[in-house]
Design goal:
The chain is an alpha/beta fold and 495 residues long. It has 15 helices and 22 strands.
Length: 495
């Protein structure tokens, strides 16, 4: 594999890492699957096998849950002071920074994203998330409650317990951080199931977690397929909570699986986010922002601005500008320094996105730019701008999860709000205007968990992220994330 990387040489540690079959991390040990099976993870830029990974299933989930339960009920994690826990979580961040080039290269190879993007975004944001959550470990507090009569009443915030976490393939390392950071800060123990398409950075993170000194059994990482390992984790009777990031369809299956013991559930699911450009906006900034909103990470973002609503007087200019940006995007393998957009993550995703393109064009949509696969090696798709779509088309209603935007003209702002909210999703939205009063009025009317004004895809560890409607339950990041990993206990004593 290393010989194919003409513009960058892999670190020796990365070459060594991908050459060896990767094991699972259970109770502080690296172990093979109980079945002895492994599965391939592919390089999406070439379609070739990149590495082989232990294929966990129900038996392995049982082992991991037992380890996490013992670590929660009897291990040192809950007995540590919150300050000690915070210091260990902070150390994970330091180790991510110390190994940032290796992690970025693993992410580039396994996911396909440009190396420069993994260096600039995925790895530093993951470290920042752990540092932010390390600070919360000492600030999880209860309250005293005034009551009539001679009583002392107060609340305690306690860890929810054993947590199953299932993460997606679009930001593998960062999503692991989003999940692990708050759970560890709250004192929970975890079984992490990375996406079968992109397990490598999560497994390397497991090594760093071990190096940081997190006690055995507190974090367990089981690689495997969603239908086997993921399903077993979601349904396991000794798991107190399951956290899932992925499609809304699978999110519904998670809820059904969790019903057996009524475990708590948090979900960060899909989106079909409206991005609204008004005629009074700064068009140069709006055009750049609208392009980034859909083409960042190859469009494989749950909050991608995939419905671009543009006020009619400027519609042609905005479409022309976004299309020009699309034409100038260099599509290629992530290791090429000039690459702006890498491949989609898998052949399955390639076929899904191409199917949407074929569907939209067959129903009358026009591709101003793009509209087809790029080349015949790897899973590349050209960035695409569609016009002449309508609300009944799949390309306007369903999440494509690729670099495809539907540009839609509008005249009446009130009608626009109705159209923007006409979706089963409610994850994010964007507004571009110089009239901030109008922007804030519209932000209040849009049914979305995040509304960006004159910006898009701005994330911070302190900013809660999640959605309305079928975009999920609960919020990632920020103070709100602690709610997902704690229980509130009321204590009342006669005095």
């Amino acid at each position: 594999m290393a010989t194919a990387l003409t513009s960058v040489e892999l670190e020796d540690k990365v070459t060594t890492f991908i050459k060896k079959d990767r094991k699972m991390f259970i109770n502080g040990k690296w172990v093979e699957a109980a079945s002895g099976k492994t599965f391939p993870t592919y390089n999406p830029a070439t379609g070739e096998v990149l590495a082989r990974v232990a294929e966990g299933d129900r038996q392995d989930i049982d082992r991991a849950v037992a380890a996490a339960r013992a670590a929660f009920d009897h291990g040192p994690w809950r007995k540590m002071s919150s300050s000690q826990r915070g210091q260990l979580i902070w150390k994970i961040a330091d180790l991510i920074d110390a190994n940032r080039e290796e992690l970025a290269e693993l992410e580039m190879l396994d996911n396909g994203k440009p190396l420069k993007v993994a260096r600039a975004a995925d790895v530093p944001l993951a470290a920042d998330l752990f540092r932010y959550m390390a600070g919360w470990a000492t600030k999880i507090e209860g309250n005293t409650i005034p009551m009539s009569g001679k009583y002392l009443a107060y609340t305690l915030r306690e860890p929810v317990g054993v947590v199953g976490q299932i993460i997606p393939w679009n930001f593998p390392l960062l999503m692991a951080a989003w999940k692990l950071g708050p759970a560890l800060a709250c004192g929970c123990t975890v079984i992490l199931k990375p996406a079968e398409q992109t397990p490598l950075s999560a497994l390397r993170l497991g090594e760093l977690i071990q190096e940081a000194g997190i006690p055995d059994g507190v974090v367990n990482i089981v690689s495997g397929y969603g239908e086997t390992a993921g399903a077993a984790l979601a349904a396991h009777p000794d798991v107190d909570k399951v956290a899932f990031t992925g499609s809304s369809e699978v999110g519904k299956l998670i809820v059904q699986a969790a019903a057996g013991n009524l475990k708590k559930v948090s979900l960060e699911l899909g989106g079909k986010s409206p991005n609204v450009v008004f005629a009074d906006g700064d068009l140069d900034t709006a055009i750049k922002g609208a392009s980034m909103a859909i083409f960042f990470n190859h469009g494989q973002c749950c909050c991608a601005g995939s419905r671009l609503y543009v006020e009619k007087p400027i519609f042609d200019k905005v479409v022309e500008g976004v299309s020009e940006h699309a034409k100038n995007i260099k599509v290629g393998p992530g290791w090429e320094a000039s690459t702006d957009m890498g491949p989609l993550v898998s052949e399955e995703q390639l076929n899904r996105v191409c199917g949407f393109l074929e569907s939209g064009i067959s129903e009358g949509a026009k591709a101003v730019v793009g509209g087809q696969r790029n080349g015949d090696v790897g899973y590349f798709v050209n960035p695409t701008v569609l016009v002449d779509t309508h609300e009944k088309m799949k390309v306007e209603q369903e999440e494509i999860f690729g670099p495809v935007v539907a540009a839609i003209p509008f005249s009446d702002p009130d009608e626009l709000v109705t159209k923007a909210n006409n979706s089963i999703y409610g994850l994010a939205a964007g507004i571009w205007t110089k009239d901030l009063s109008k922007a804030h009025r519209m932000a209040a009317q849009l049914r979305a968990g995040t509304v960006w004004i004159n910006c898009y895809n701005v994330f911070d560890a302190a900013l809660p992220f999640g959605g309305y409607k079928q975009s999920g339950w609960g919020r990632e990041m920020g103070h709100d994330a602690l709610e997902m990993y704690t229980e509130t206990k009321a204590v009342c004593a006669a005095i």
